[in-house]
């Protein structure tokens, strides 16, 4: 696989860079531009080599069913997107991009992301310029990997660089179709520095060496169904799987325990039973829980710690202190840790302790083990609680890092570059 480093003189060359600028935002206000900053090493390197850089990213999800019939022009779509807060234009990202690039770079924005408007904007670029194009998901063909769209995008450029690890598990037009077309024409396709680093770090969790054992996976978050395949794979690769968060109640129920009104992924009960049988004690579940009678933070709500069965009327929202201790003891023995999913509703101060306890246990492994936080909500928690520097690697892709483990190191957006 080529990397940006391998790309030599790029003067006069137009380079399509798929970045992941899917930043946290409220309306048009961006609360964290880390994802933009994370792509700068790749962009800066391309600019240094004289390239004309075209940046493509998605931002948010587009619910096409919500769009009114007949509203098909770009302006209609823009208006609808804003009104329903379905997704936003990437235009507000331009200012953050300019600041991150250091203001000497000429950055333009194209509100068209295909057709004559985009072609003109690309043609106007000079060596060392950057063009940020509109949200790729404003085009229905993007997520369908529409061959016409891929062909059109590919026809505008000479080189493709993939630096959107968070989207590498999606075979969309901008992540898969474009490099496929360019490869067929013998044009270079490469990965950016961010993707290269992610792949190198995560492959260690996929191809497990003896010196990295015991290998402990920690899973949390909401739905068992979403993580089914990864549990299967992790059972084969890991020595222990610690399960906390909402998904642990499905396992508790499968073991015959009462879980009150805790979150239950009913369709995954049989699967959970099968996993527990196959694991022969290697799946570690919580022994106590922080429960509440109101998920909403209303005054006077009941919050207490319960061991064993959870009665009706209350729900588990965090692991309890005994579970935190038990989990920490297992983590302390690990030579490698992969963590995806918070231990509780960490967004509420009252239910953060379990997730913090896991952060602390991993911090205590600093210098002694290889520790990975697999992105998504757990990465947000790690950053929020100030433990990012204690991890060997914090991934930028929650779904992508899980799928990479699940598919033995394969992701469509990376495989197509090979
Ligand atoms: P996921 O996207 O699957 O990683 O799920 C993350 C979400 O799970 C976060 O928003 C947490 O608040 C939520 N979560 C974790 N534990 C619980 C729980 N015990 N009950 C309800 N939600 C939870």
Pick out its properties.
Rossmann fold, 418 residues, 2 domains, six-stranded parallel β-sheet, binds adenosine monophosphate, 38% helix, single chain, 17 helices, alpha/beta
Description:
The structure is a single chain. This protein is α/β, with parallel strands linked by helices. It folds into two domains: 4-191, Phosphoglycerate kinase, N-terminal domain (Rossmann fold, 3-Layer(aba) Sandwich); 198-406, Rossmann fold, CATH 3.40.50.1260. The chain has helices at residues 34-38, 40-48, 74-84, 93-101, 115-123, 140-143, 147-155, 173-184, 193-206, 224-237, 247-254, 269-279, 321-332, 353-363, 376-384, 398-406, 412-415; strands at residues 14-19, 25-26, 29-30, 52-56, 107-110, 130-133, 159-163, 189-191, 215-219, 240-243, 283-284, 288-292, 303-307, 315-319, 336-340, 370-373, 393-394. It has a six-stranded parallel beta sheet, with helices on both faces. The longest helix is centred in the middle third of the chain and has 14 residues, at 193-206. The termini are close together. The mean pLDDT is 92. Adenosine monophosphate binds at residues 220-223, 245-246, 263, 316-317, 341-342, 344-345, 347, 376-377.
- Largest beta sheet: strand ordering: 5-6-4-1-7-8
Separate helix tally: 17
Q: Report the average pLDDT across residues.
A: 92
The level-1 CATH class of the largest domain: Alpha Beta
Largest β sheet strand count, sense and barrel closure: 6 strands, parallel
Multimeric state of these chains? single chain
CATH architect. name of the largest domain: 3-Layer(aba) Sandwich
Helix-strand category: alpha/beta
CATH topology of the largest domain: Rossmann fold
How many domains? The number is: 2
Number of strands: 17
> Which segments are poorly predicted (pLDDT under 50) over 5 or more consecutive residues?
none
Our Rg estimate from Cα atoms comes to 23 Å
Which cofactor or ligand species appear? adenosine monophosphate
Give the helix level as a range of percent. 25-40%
Can you identify the CATH superfamily of the largest domain? Phosphoglycerate kinase, N-terminal domain
**For the terminal residues, how far apart are their CA atoms?**
5 Å
Beta-strand residue percentage? 15-25%
Which term fits the overall shape? elongated
